Amino acid sequence: MSEGLPPQNMEIGKVQKRSITEEMKESYLDYAMSVIISRALPDVRDGLKPVQRRILYSMWEEGLKSSAKFRKSATVVGACLGRYHPHGDIPVYDALVRMAQDFSLRYPLIQGQGNFGSIDSDPPAAQRYTECKLSRIAEEMLYDIEKETVPWVDNYDGTRKEPSVLPAKIPQLLLNGCMGIAVGMATNIPSHNLSELVDAIIYKIDNPNATTEDLFNFIQGPDFPTGGIIYDRKGMISAYSTGKGPITMRAKTEIAESKKGRFQIIITEIPYGVNKAGLVERIAELVKNKKIQGIRDIRDESDKEGIRVVIDLKPDIAPQRVLNRLFKLTDLQKVFHLNMLALVDGIQPQVLSLPRLIEEFIKHRQEVVTRRTQFDLNCAKHRAHILEGLKKALDYIDEVIDTIKKSKDRETAHKNLMKKFKLTDIQATAILEMKLQSLAGLERKKILQELKEKLEIIKKLTDLLKSPKKILGVVKKELREIKEKYRDERRTKVVIRALRGIKEEETIPNEECIIILTRNGYIKRVSPKIYKAQRRGGTGVIGIAPRKEDAVNHFVFASTLDNILFFTDKGKVFQTKAYEIPEAGRLSKGQAIVNIISINPDERITAVLPLSFKESKYLIMATRNGVVKKTCLEEFSCVRRNGLIAIRLEGNDVLEWANATSGKDEILLITQNGQSIRFKERDIRPMGRNASGVIGIRLTKEDKVVGMGVVRKHYDSGSELLVITENGFGKKTDLRHYKLQRRGGKGIKTARLTDKTGKLICGLIIKPEQENLMVISKKGHVIKIKIKDIPNLSRATKGVKIMRLKAKDKVASVIGI
Questions:
Q1: If one looks up domain 252-331 in CATH, what number appears?
Q2: How high is the pLDDT of residue 604?
Q3: Which of 145, 529, 565, 808 has a CA positioned 20 to 30 A from the CA of residue 682?
């Protein structure tokens, strides 16, 4: 090796064997830490990510303060890229745009001029078109940065220094919040109200052990730039105590009545982060897909004054139910997932509670005020030192002048002054640079006055540095000044109580509906409004289009909020809500019932009962063989998904009917051969679900029960029994023609049957309030006729033609509405 040359590293250029697992692990960790520290997460002290900090500092350097003229955004982006942020220009511009959006930040840090995007997710104009400058509140982030208040680090190429954190007079991290996704971690911090934050920080300074609950006497919760409503103070306290938790947000809505008497839902504020245009499109899509019903029109009437989305409702629609449905299915109600993750000391990512986060900001401000005070003290001492030299020179001005005159040159004069008058280098230099005008009496007085002031400042600053309590006093004073300058009213309303979950029933309009079930198990729900009343004897319209081998079995009138009980031929009962049955068009065959209830393949639905009578106490069941049974309705209050036993059947008997009763009603059974019996409900004792029942009517060998009616005590007078035959004949008969008998008899005749009429297919009690009758055939034809058009005849008559059936078609079911 040549002499004088530095020793060489012989390992350079040498290939070393290394496990790929170790290499991948180390490289991935390096990358992850780079993303966490240098890109995605904010610093707990100034609440900024590196790109935001660099943008603001670049604008400060360029002189783009709030009082300056606007300058092209491209200039700022270029300055930031060239000096501090060696990445793409698009992410820099995106960060700049977000800091200028008043719907993204509660207190925007940048004033924008031009198109900076909208709450509808419209993109901003290109950076060459928009202009920007710092907002007033952003300047509070940068004040005193030149006073060595924060640490400085080399920029990416070592040509400049950049601040590793800003002095930040305002608690930016809580003030405007932050969202970021790093590697394996994310942060999601909401914005808050400045006045509330300042009060909480001051309280925390005075009470270092303050808890989250104490601080919530000042901070009510998030204060989003888009307003809205948040719920559950107790839940928020829990979330802020751990640094994680959900916060439920809702839009601000109002139900109003238009001049035409129709209801409207008006949306004036939306949850934070919701795209308004996307919200309107989502509502329109749900209406189109019939997942939300009752909406006639939706309009976006938003302007510069604020948001206004108007939803017009159809007549006779409960507006609150529609609104509940909107809350459930759209972003009108949304959850903000609080996750207060930030970098502590600039390097350590931690999830922080509210007290800890405020504590870190206070520590930062303590350090900034301390460093600023030290800087000001050093400057004051330096100036006082010079002034003391000038004072000494003025005291001996003749000797000073003589010394300077006798000196060979400036350097000699400098040395002679230091030696003769015991001056420092700085003092001697100041004396040599002193102007002759300083010799005037007034100027001499000014120097002495300035020296006195500097000595007072030095004493004051020295005392300040010796007292941490006084430092905190300065922090509090500056916070109060910030509050006074930028305070405003809270935008987001806080509801103390927790938001109760919206039950499905609260989102469904309480409307009349018809449930149609076929023999092969296809079911659907339709509105009775689709069927228009016709004259007696018509063919009707298609009510369902079943397959060739299928036929309609049940045709039930109900309300969308009713519980629907399905009884099977095996004596089991299943339950669902009417609204859970899919609504379908008039010609649709519906959906397989096995998708709604867990019925076995070998079971068949024989009775469908809507439960809507609040006064009902019992459930009366009747079988094909004339057996009846009474069971308390309470035993069916909680029907499992796989069903419950409703009745124990004997032999080949089949459960066919079920109805709710009050315990004081009368039961009417009708057979296919035209017999009927009427007896008191009290004749049947209540039994458990597993009981088999008692004889209701004694049947002949080839007869069977085709109908069961409940005669309510309150409408016995004037009520009628309607019977329909399989070939479409029917009639009404006053109930007074059906005398009361004892349960278990053979009954009396209710209709004269012939080959033309066919056997009875059903019998039902017509209530006084019912006006229409709907008849459906096995091939799916439906006719709706006025009940008053059906003649009232005696028991032993065949009736008149109710529905004209096509060849090989038969009546399947009848309901009165």
A1: 3.30.1360.40
A2: 86
A3: 565
| pTM for the structure as a whole | 0.72
Q: Phi/psi of residue 775, each to 5°?
A: -120, 135
The topology under which CATH files domain 48-167 is: Topoisomerase II; domain 5 (3.90.199)
Cα gap 98→276, rounded to integer Å: 17
Beta strand pairing call for 309-313 and 295-300: antiparallel
Q: Closest Cα partner for 719 from 732, 731, 705?
A: 732
Q: How far apart are CA 689 and CA 666, in angstroms?
A: 21
State the Cα angle at 538 between 537 and 542, rounded to 5°.
140
* Residue 559: DSSP 8-state: E
Local structure of residue 39 (DSSP, 8 states): I
Our CA dihedral for 275, 276, 278, 282, rounded to 10 degrees, sits at 130
pLDDT at position 33? 66
Which residues are known to be catalytic? 129
The C-alpha atoms of residue 714 and residue 570 are separated, in whole angstroms, by 34
CATH number at 359-486: 1.10.268.10
Residue 364 scores a pLDDT above 60: yes
Annotated domain spans of the chain: 48-167, 252-331, 359-486, 510-816
Please determine, looking at this structure, whether the domain spanning 510-816 carries the CATH number 2.40.160.20.
no
Q: Does 669 or 587 have the greater pLDDT score?
A: 669
Mean pLDDT in residue range 323-346: 93
pLDDT band, residue 359 (cuts 50/70/90): very high
Query: Model confidence over 673-696: pLDDT tens digits?
Result: 999 999 999 999 999 988 989 999
| Dihedral angle computed from the Cα positions of residues 502, 507, 513 and 517, in that order, rounded to the nearest 10 degrees | -50
Measure the CA–CA gap between 103 and 306, rounded to whole angstroms. 11
Instruction: Summarize the confidence of residues 142-155 as an average pLDDT.
Output: 94
Structure tokens at 8: 């060489």
* pLDDT reported for residue 1: 44
Residue 551 corresponds to which tokens in the numbers above?
């036929």
Contact 438, 336 (CB under 8 A): no
C-alpha distances (whole Å) from 28 to each of 16, 78, 118, 462, 476 are 20, 31, 37, 49, 44
Residues 6+ apart with CB under 8 A from 567: 573, 605, 606, 607, 608, 609, 621, 646, 655, 658
